[in-house]
Amino acid sequence: MKLLWYKLDPASLKLRLTVGIALFSTLGLCGLASWTSMRMQQILVSTHKDNIKYIAERFPHDVKIYSDMVSLEEGVQKAVDNLSNDNIIMWAKSDRNVVTARSQILQNTKIAQVLLPLKNVPPIPQVKDLEGRYWLLCATPLQVKGVNLGKFYIAQDITEDQKMLLRLLRSLTLATIIVTAIMITAIAFYINRSLRPLKRISQLTSDISAERLGEAHFNLENPPSEVKELAETFEKMLLRLSQSWEHQRQLLSNVSHELRTPLTIICGYLESTLRRGPNLTEIQREALTTAASEADRTVQLLQDLLDLARADSGAMHFQLEKIDVHELITEVVAMTKQYSNHQIIFESNKSNLEIAVDKNRCKQVLLNLIDNAIKYSASEYPITIKSYLQDSLVIIEICDRGVGIPLQQQARIFERFHRLDEARNRAGGTGLGLSIVKTLVEGMGGKISVQSQLEKGSTFTLKFPGV
Ligand code: ADP
User: Which parts of the chain span the membrane according to its record (predicted)?
Assistant: First the structure.
């Protein structure tokens, strides 16, 4: 159901608003329903009460008039006969609890058995449930011409009225429940609709890449003015962020460029001094070798930074051409043999696989991955490269049986400067290699992924559309 969008997140604004408004509305509705039912009961009963009060006040007066013609006791019976009807029943009792007068209807023994034995009847009319019927009852002392005639009782059967009232109350309760349910659904729907622009802002924001921050526009349909203002402020902030991101990128690119040239010269001088310096002492040679290798590493780092800056600003261009995968890998394997004795096995079950890539960039990718495989595995374990076709995709796998990568780190190793703990990184490196590899592979329309198990090895998989 639609309500599932809450996913019962207690911190969700939608849930909080819906529960809050629904709670207050339900309380309000229930309060109104209770008040209405109380008032209905009051109005219904009060008419009967007034009638009974009137009879109770008038009764002694009537008895007095009749007693001028007949005896007091007969006068009471005459007044009872005169004021009784089908609904209003009366009777009088002496102080010794003997019934001295009664309405005709009390000859019917069933009603008489219920009413006549009643004691402690209040002087103000009250509703009582007696054997399934509702009676409005009151009893007042009867004194006429200074003579105490005991107590005078009035009872009115209001069962039908009471039943009608109960039916009305039941309908009112049902109506309240239905209205509450409809109201809660309507409130939930309305709140969901009102908060939709916020959801859209968050969706659009998560889709904006770092490179397109400045182009972000939230085209919201008929948003509330507060949300519109928020969206505009957000767009301005993204624009400022994009400008500062652009400045940083520019700075990084300039600094890398400016530093790379003098460092390359230093590197050249150090290497030529090393080559042409037969009189160097062992310590001097060692110092120069370290300086040359650090300078070389820094030049490589600057080159990597320049590559990334170019890729970020969209200035990296790929010269895509049809390449035979088998030839490419054979060439790269031959290149690695020049600086490493690590055994590399190339398995290919189809020799004429072709992909459209930039040859030099693709070589750079493969060299980087093979270089890592060599760095992070012991020399006795060979590195295997496989190429094959799967679902019209050309797959290249670089597998090693080295230290492996912990599962939680596998997604992060493609981030810039992300390196695993120092202990396993004695091999050196900058933490930029894999992010460049990913940028290059994706720039050429491919994908890269890794599967790895600690102490068992890693497999880096490249996927390119076949041509
Ligand atoms: P680095 O220059 O440090 O090698 P990379 O971006 O190439 O930087 O690699 C990032 C991290 O991923 C490395 O520090 C290393 O810990 C881990 N890593 C990369 N390749 C492998 C591999 N084949 N086996 C184990 N760990 C690897």
Answer: 15-35, 172-191
